[in-house]
């Protein structure tokens, strides 16, 4: 089987600029709330020397906490989850939270590869298709539906707690979402109850952490 050129283009675009991968035009007016702005990287060399905790969700040494830097400053830096970062930029309430030094969060950023493995696009909801058919995302109403679905997807990947301790039950920002927690078994960290593997802690900054998560294995 040959890959279609559209598919290859998608991969190319994903690897070069997640910005282009957001819904064409749909969210373009939001892109100037660009959180990739060059924030001064204020390291805190005199911060308290915290002993490394033994329960970090990574087999590697997590990056040291960076005081003064916010999640919003670091979300766009890592290409491996830049699709998710661009979705976050399209959701103003969540972008604002990640830019707020008084609100801690743990961001569960799916790898681009995990988003590509989803059965549908994050802005699609099978319920919309069954109710409205193939044109579910056409027109202004369709754009509104897509926007809402992206918002739900992003909210479901942000936990309003950090530090988030092992087995501490909490809920994502998504209204009515189920309880989730994480655990470490033999050095493999997983989100529960779904078992999604946490690959690493990408960043630890003043208002929380960014964790990178893999696709759910069926
Ligand atoms: C927020 O996160 C910072 C950095 O990890 C931590 O020092 C602080 O105690 C946290 N605040 C709350 C309310 O959890």
Automatic annotation (TrEMBL):
Annotated signal sequence range: 1-18
Protein keywords: Signal
Domain of life: Eukaryota
Protein name: FAS1 domain-containing protein
Residues covered by the FAS1 domain: 68-218
Region (Disordered) residue spans: 30-67
